[in-house]
Design brief:
It is built from eleven helices and eight strands. Strand 6, helix 8 and strand 7 form a beta-alpha-beta unit. The N terminus is likely disordered.
Length: about 250
């Protein structure tokens, strides 16, 4: 696990502890999605639907399933296109009743278009800017052409500032950068953290932290996929993370 930079205080955003866990529903079809949703029951209230399901013929069926079960929805499409196309896509996503969707955090005009569509459709859909994918590290930035004076944390903080200035509701970032984000930009925005690992795992995520580390640095939501999905008992795994979340906030309030 990494070390959280400039770890500070818990987020002050008014989110119920049970809604802070977002389960990444990374499965190929509606049948598998329904099996997991039913197995998890009330251990999970909030679900992320990503590209695997978005690009399947079952996407709308899964959205309807989650809505029928009273779950909250995060559509993680990572939109990146010309502003007009992004604006049109956000309008469509707003019709689904999602709580959040994602837009890549580069290109001010594109981010402003997403926020404009949010506002014109009632403002109920939160726009999250993806800063730097948690599968990337400093060496990957070198491969992409960034100079050696640029590191992941600095890039995340810089992109976040531009996204928030464009009107975005929050940022998607590793827990490793949450403290730096709060120090630079304050508390009045949402931070959603993927790459959460309750224990060490060998997978494609490079910038990972535990649930407790991310929350104590100021994260609002924790996105957890494989550690729950691949567990022998997904409900027990989700319940364990929920207990860790409650413990952090209970300790802060005592």
């Amino acid at each position: 696990m990494g070390t959280v930079e400039r770890a500070g205080r818990l987020s002050t955003n008014p989110i119920a502890p049970r809604d802070r866990l977002i389960f990444a529903l990374d499965v190929p079809d509606a049948d598998r999605a329904a099996t997991l949703v039913d197995a998890l029951g009330d251990a999970v209230t909030f679900y992320k639907v990503g590209l695997e399901l978005i690009l399947s013929r079952d996407f709308v069926c899964v959205v309807d399933l989650l809505r029928d079960r009273g779950k909250r929805l995060f559509v993680d499409g990572k939109l990146y296109d010309v502003p007009q196309t992004v604006e049109s896509a956000v309008r469509r996503l707003a019709d689904l009743g999602a709580t959040y969707t994602t837009v890549h955090g580069t290109g001010r005009a594109m981010l402003e278009a997403a926020c404009r569509a949010r506002d014109e459709t009632g403002g109920g859909l939160g726009i999250l800017a993806v800063s730097v994918l948690t599968s990337l590290d400093d060496e990957d930035l070198r491969d992409e052409g960034f100079g050696r004076d640029m590191d992941v944390s600095s890039l995340v903080v810089g992109r976040a500032g531009r996204a928030l200035a464009a009107g975005c509701d929050g940022i998607v970032a590793s827990g490793l950068e949450v403290g730096a984000l709060r120090a630079a930009h304050g508390d009045d925005f949402v931070i959603v953290c993927p790459g959460i690992r309750p224990v060490d795992r060998d997978d494609d995520q490079k910038r990972v932290v535990t649930p407790e580390m991310a929350l104590r640095a100021g994260a609002d939501h924790l996105v957890v996929g494989r550690p729950i999905r691949d567990a022998a008992d997904p409900r027990v795994a989700a319940g364990s993370i929920q207990e860790a979340i409650r413990s952090v906030f209970d300790a802060a309030g005592s």
